[in-house]
C-alpha cells in the first residue's frame, strides 16, 4: 500500500507539473506555431496564461487588444477558432497585414492555472471576447455591471465578418478579411501629421536597434579597427537610448564584448559562419527577446521596400541627440559619424553622410547645436532623395519624402520659403525648431528613459566596469567617462568602480 500510494502521488505531481509547465512556456511555442491538428496552418492569435498575461499585454505595441476566453473542451470554441484566426491573421505576427493596431489573444479557462485569471474577468460563458487598450487588462479586471470601464464586451462576433465589422466600427477603419500585406493601405487610421503618432515610434526605435545589431553581426564588420567605434556606440546606447530594455541589452553585450569578439581572433575565424551571428543575437537580444518583431508601426511604408529600417534609424539618432548634455555633444557627433561610417551597409548613403559630417561646424559645444545639425542634415538627405525618387519613380506614394517639420506639426517653425533657379529657399525659426524637436523626440516619444537604474543586473559590476573590461580600453574609457558624466547613475557607478580598482591594485602590490 505505501508503494502504491507513492506512485499515485508521483503521478498526480507529474500531471500538475506538466500542465503548469505547458502553460508557462505556452507563449513561446504558440506565438506563431503549428496547430498540431492536421491542417498545418499557423496559429496567429497569441495564447496567454496566468504567467504571461500581464507581461505580454503590458509590452504590446498595439493600441487595442482582443482577449478570447475559451475552454479547449468546448465544441463551440473549436468551431469559432477558424473565424477568430481569420481576423488574427490581419493583425498578429511578422507577416501581419495591419500590424501594431490590434493584438489578438486567447486564454484557455479550462486550464487550472488560469482559473483565477478567468474569474478576474467574470468569465461566465465560452467563448467570451473582451476589447480594450492592452494596459487596461493588466491594471484591473472586468465586471459586466461596471458602467465606466475601457474594457468592453464584444457580443456581436459569431463570425469573422461580424468580429471585423465590430472592430472597424470601433476604431473607424475599413479593414477587410481579404486584405493582403501592403494592399488596401488607405484603410489604415493614420495621419502622418498627427503629433501623437510619434508616441508609437518607440517600438520602431527598438526594431531599428535590433536590426542594426543583426546587420553588424551578420556582415562580419567587427574587426580590430572597428571595435572602438562599436564600443563607443554601445556606451551611447546604454546612457541615452529611449528604451530601457535596449539600454539593458546594450550593457549586457558590452559586459560580454571580449568573449563575443575576442581581440586575438581574426575576423574570419570568429565569424566563420552565419550561425555564429545568429547565436550572438539570440543569446544577447539587444532590446529583449520580443524584438525584433518583424514589422514596423510608425515607420511602415505602403510597400515592403520603403521606409522601415532607415526611418527607424533616423528616429533613433534624433532621440539620442535630444537626450545628451552639452558636454557630450561633440563626442556624440563623433560616435554617430563613426558608427554610420563603419557599420551602415548602404555605401552611397554612408558616403553622403560622411560628406555632411566633414563639412559640419565642429566642435559641437551644445546639445542645441548637434540637434539642429542632425535635423538640417536629415532634411538635406530628404531633399536629395525627393529628386532622385521622383525621377526614378521609386518614391512611396503614400509617404513621400518631405522637408520636416511640416506646418501641420509646427506652424511657427518655418518663417517663409521662396524658389530661385529651381531651388527652394527656406527661412527657419531655429529656436522654434529646436523647441519642437526636443519635445517631439523627447517627451512625446514614449519612453522609460528616466526610469530607475540603467540595468537590473549590474550590482557588483558597475557600468563603468562593463566599459573598461574590454581590451580596447585606451580609446573607449575616455569615451565612457565623457558619456558617464552626463548621467548620475553612470557617474556614481564610475566612482565606485574606480575605488574598487584602486583597492585591487593596492592588494596585488602588497
From TrEMBL:
GO CC annotation, single: extracellular space
Range of residues in the leader sequence: 1-22
Compartment(s) where it occurs, according to its Swiss-Prot or TrEMBL record: Secreted
Pfam families reported in the protein's UniProt record: Evr1_Alr, Thioredoxin
A GO term, aspect molecular function: protein disulfide isomerase activity
Major subcellular site: secreted
Its EC number(s): 1.8.3.2
Domain ERV/ALR sulfhydryl oxidase: 302-404
Co-factor requirement: FAD
Record-linked PROSITE patterns: ERV_ALR (PS51324), THIOREDOXIN_1 (PS00194), THIOREDOXIN_2 (PS51352)
Reactions performed catalytically: 2 R'C(R)SH + O2 = R'C(R)S-S(R)CR' + H2O2
Organism: Dendrobium nobile
Keywords per UniProt: Disulfide bond, FAD, Flavoprotein, Glycoprotein, Membrane, Oxidoreductase, Redox-active center, Secreted, Signal, Transmembrane, Transmembrane helix
InterPro entries: ERV/ALR_sulphydryl_oxid_sf (IPR036774), ERV/ALR_sulphydryl_oxidase (IPR017905), Sulfhydryl_oxidase (IPR039798), Thioredoxin-like_sf (IPR036249), Thioredoxin_CS (IPR017937), Thioredoxin_domain (IPR013766)
Listed name of the protein: Sulfhydryl oxidase
A GO BP entry: protein folding
Positions of the Thioredoxin domain: 35-172
Amino acid at each position: 500500500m505505501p508503494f502504491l500510494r507513492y506512485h499515485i502521488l508521483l503521478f498526480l505531481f507529474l500531471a500538475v507539473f506538466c500542465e503548469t509547465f505547458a502553460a508557462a512556456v505556452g507563449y513561446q511555442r504558440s506565438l506563431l506555431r503549428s496547430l498540431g491538428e492536421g491542417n498545418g496552418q499557423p496559429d496567429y492569435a497569441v495564447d496567454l496564461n496566468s504567467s504571461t498575461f500581464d507581461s505580454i499585454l503590458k509590452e504590446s505595441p498595439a493600441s487595442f487588444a482582443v482577449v478570447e476566453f475559451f475552454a479547449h473542451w468546448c465544441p463551440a470554441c473549436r468551431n469559432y477558432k477558424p473565424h477568430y484566426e481569420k481576423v488574427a491573421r490581419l493583425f498578429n505576427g511578422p507577416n501581419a497585414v495591419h500590424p501594431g493596431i490590434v493584438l489578438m489573444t486567447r486564454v484557455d479557462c479550462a486550464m487550472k492555472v488560469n482559473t483565477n485569471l478567468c474569474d478576474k474577468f467574470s468569465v461566465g460563458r465560452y467563448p467570451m471576447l473582451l476589447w480594450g487598450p492592452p494596459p487596461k487588462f493588466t491594471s484591473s479586471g472586468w465586471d459586466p455591471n461596471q458602467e465606466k470601464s475601457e474594457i468592453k464586451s464584444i457580443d456581436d462576433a459569431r463570425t469573422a465578418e461580424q468580429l471585423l465589422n465590430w472592430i472597424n466600427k470601433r476604431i473607424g477603419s475599413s479593414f477587410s478579411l481579404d486584405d493582403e500585406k501592403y494592399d488596401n493601405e488607405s484603410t489604415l487610421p493614420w495621419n502622418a501629421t498627427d503629433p501623437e503618432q510619434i508616441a508609437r515610434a518607440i517600438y520602431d526605435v527598438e526594431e531599428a536597434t535590433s536590426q542594426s545589431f543583426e546587420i553588424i553581426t551578420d556582415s562580419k564588420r567587427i574587426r580590430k579597427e572597428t571595435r572602438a567605434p562599436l564600443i563607443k556606440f554601445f556606451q551611447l546606447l546604454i546612457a541615452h537610448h529611449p528604451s530601457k530594455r535596449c539600454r539593458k541589452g546594450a550593457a549586457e553585450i558590452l559586459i560580454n564584448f571580449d568573449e563575443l569578439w575576442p581581440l586575438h581572433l581574426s575576423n574570419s575565424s570568429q565569424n566563420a559562419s552565419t550561425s555564429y551571428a545568429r547565436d550572438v543575437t539570440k543569446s544577447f537580444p539587444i532590446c529583449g527577446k520580443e524584438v525584433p518583431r518583424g514589422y514596423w508601426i510608425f515607420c511602415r511604408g505602403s510597400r515592403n521596400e520603403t521606409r522601415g529600417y532607415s526611418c527607424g534609424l533616423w528616429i533613433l539618432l534624433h532621440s539620442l541627440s535630444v537626450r545628451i548634455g552639452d558636454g557630450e555633444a561633440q563626442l556624440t557627433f563623433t560616435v554617430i559619424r563613426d558608427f554610420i561610417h563603419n557599420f551602415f551597409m548602404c555605401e552611397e548613403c554612408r558616403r553622403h553622410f560622411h560628406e555632411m559630417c566633414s563639412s559640419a561646424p565642429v566642435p559641437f559645444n551644445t546639445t542645441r547645436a548637434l540637434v539642429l545639425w542632425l535635423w538640417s542634415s536629415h532634411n538635406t538627405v530628404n531633399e536629395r532623395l525627393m529628386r532622385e525618387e521622383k525621377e526614378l519613380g521609386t518614391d512611396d506614394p503614400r509617404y513621400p519624402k518631405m522637408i520636416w517639420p511640416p506646418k501641420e506639426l509646427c506652424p511657427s517653425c518655418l518663417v517663409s520659403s521662396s524658389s530661385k533657379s529651381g531651388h527652394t529657399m527656406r527661412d527657419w525659426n531655429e529656436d522654434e525648431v529646436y523647441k519642437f524637436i526636443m519635445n517631439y523626440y523627447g517627451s512625446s516619444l514614449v519612453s522609460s528613459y528616466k526610469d530607475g537604474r540603467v540595468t537590473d543586473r549590474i550590482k557588483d559590476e558597475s557600468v563603468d566596469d562593463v566599459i573598461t573590461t574590454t581590451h580596447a580600453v585606451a580609446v573607449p574609457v575616455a569615451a565612457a567617462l565623457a558619456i558617464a558624466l552626463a548621467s548620475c547613475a553612470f557617474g556614481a557607478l564610475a566612482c565606485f568602480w574606480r575605488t574598487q580598482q584602486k583597492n585591487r591594485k593596492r592588494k596585488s602590490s602588497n
